[in-house]
Amino acid sequence: MPKVILNGWNEGALKISMTHLQQEMLGLGLKQAKHNVDSVMEGQTIVLEVADNATADAFVKRALNLGFNCEIVPE
Description:
single chain; alpha+beta; 3-stranded antiparallel sheet; 49% helix; globular
């Protein structure tokens, strides 16, 4: 499984949209998705396991558009 590392955010990052993105694409519950966003906003690094490379690519593209810094760690 590839991993996506969330390691920062930019001014104007869309927290609620990022929470929804994790729920939609990764199947996380609201509590976990919100915790991940809050942790990143506090300067922590979060590692997310993603089902496949295509999902990881799509997730990263959308997360970048929402103002979050992230990268893919290959399998």
